[in-house]
Amino acid sequence: MFGLFGDVDLFRSEEMQLVQLIIPAEAAHDAVGFLGELGMLQLKDLNSDKSPFQRTYANQVKRCDEMARKLRFFRAEIEKANMGSSIARAALTDPSPPLDELETKLERLERELIEMNSNTDKLKKSQAELVCQA
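Predicted structure:
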């Protein structure tokens, strides 16, 4: 279909067709990634009139923001412990885990790290008290 994307079509060598794909939410990330790698399509925003908070993916963006915050926390803790070089050498076993799995792992790791930091602070306080008493 010509004229679908305005002036961009003037540079196309083949006809284009407007199609609508209905993809289940759980498969959307992989499907769009795969289709994007083909480099043979353009996406049209059917919700351009909606604000970012009215869009269906707003909750996923919030979840990703929260995971990014946790990763920044981990990075800061790693840098504080001067472990950056040893961590950099560690290989990822699964470079693209499912979002739910990644979120669960990050939550667990954050809880454990916060607990470890709390325990370390308690031990340092106890040590300081014992040193003062001696």
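Summary: The helical segments are 25-38, 58-80, 84-88, 99-133.
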